[in-house]
Amino acid sequence: MVYGTILTLLSIFGHLASAQQQQRRGPRFDDFDLSNATRYPRMSVGPNDPPTIESVSDASPRVFLIHNALTAEECDHLRKLAKPMLRDSYVGTAGQGMKPSTDRRTSQSTFLLKGSVFETRQMRSMRKKIANFTGFDLKKFADLQVNRYEPGGKYEPHVDWARSSVAEQEWTVLLCLSSVADDQGGETVFPRAGAGSGIMVQPKEGMAIVFRNNLRLNVLDPESLHGGAPLLYGEKWNSNQWIFAQDVSFARRVSLPILLLPWGGDPPGWLVRLRNHLMKTKGEAAGYNALNRAANAVLGGLSCIATVVVGGAARVAFSRRKYEAEEH
């Protein structure tokens, strides 16, 4: 009797210790039994078929697929834009900070911070299609993050959400820019979905995996936990199109894309560190707004300087032509 009680207590303490460890290090695929996970897609859609929506989960988490959301040419366009700027991926931290990747995320990424200024024709067309399929407001579409996974690459289970009054990621539209074979791994996995048995989605080029990250404003849906399973061979490309609960700010649509033009739209390390510092010292909302104000102020200052320089050059050119005309 006593021996059995001791074993029971040891088992309880073991589960508690395991849960605490998982909370400290973050969930991993090894923490979940996915042997009975439900696999998608189930619909058979050809590359020349019209875009088609397939429901995956109507309950928490809300998940659906859009087959042929992108054309092969649009997928290739995003890969080519991103490829020269790829670097080791960042991972999110509390308060929407970012830090260098760890073994939780082994991939390469870049942000295409093009805003409404440098958005390409293909990007504009892609976003309009997604807005038409989903009903999402284009004013809430963030800039794209493009990711490449090589053999062994993965992203352990995580959520695409942080409580925010300025940039809450309400929905994720995960754009599959390449396909993976049945034996290649690399599925997008929702380990808590499907009544706890898990849901696995095999990427198909041009498909969009759409899922909601919150239950309502400022309330995380914990069932939206998801990750990218390890890729066994080859490479996998995808892109995050986040849909904010709030309209995208002027700084993100105009100021930052212009200021980040020398870096191709991908924020350099010093800007990421400044962003994290402002959010840590001022708080998430105040820090985010401070960065936006700074970007707008710098752009305004540069615009004034450019106006003065161009105006001065024009006056000099006019005076020179006038002088030459008088000489003749």
Question: How would you describe what is shown here?
Answer:
The chain is of the alpha+beta class and 328 residues long. Helix content is 36%, strand content 22%. The chain has helices spanning 2-25, 72-82, 121-134, 250-259, 269-282, 284-327, and strands at residues 38-40, 52-57, 63-67, 87-88, 90-92, 98-100, 108-112, 144-149, 155-158, 169-176, 188-190, 199-201, 208-212, 214-216, 219-220, 226-228, 236-244. The strands form four sheets. Strands 2-3-13-10-17-8-7-4 form an eight-stranded antiparallel sheet, covered by helices on one side. A five-stranded mixed sheet has the order 1-12-11-16-9, with no helix packed on it. A hairpin with a 2-residue loop joins strand 14 and strand 15 (219-220). Helix 4 crosses helix 6 (284-327) and helix 5 crosses helix 6 (284-327). The protein is globular and about 90 Å long.
Q: Which features characterize this protein?
A:
328 residues, alpha+beta, eight-stranded antiparallel beta sheet, 22% strand
Q: Looking at the structure, what is the overall shape?
A: globular
Number of helices: 6
**Main beta sheet strand tally, sense and closure:** 8 strands, antiparallel
Q: In terms of quaternary structure, what is this?
A: single chain
Strand content: 15-25%
Based on DSSP secondary structure assignment, what is the total number of beta strands? 17
Order of helices and strands: HEEEHEEEEHEEEEEEEEEEHHH
